[in-house]
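Please, structure for the following, as tokens.
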Amino acid sequence: MRRRETQQRKRALVGLKRTAGMDWMLGPLVRVIRSWKHVLDAVMLEMGRMVAESVMLMEREGRGRAGLLSDRPGVSEMGP
């Protein structure tokens, strides 16, 4: 059954190549690839912004807590 389907697909592809060539597929394929690349670039840019914002927030919190830390041994930030 699969062999017959494979042969039918191959015959159909040969027929398409004869009638229109592979150029008919090139335009839409390039457009799809470009649009996905734009989407991927936008996602990566947003992820980079989120990472940078998180790092800056952690640094700011670290500086703010520096004055709160106790110099006494045995006393932690979280309590006794």
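The CA atoms of residues 13 and 19 lie 10 Å apart. The helical segments are 2-20, 23-66.
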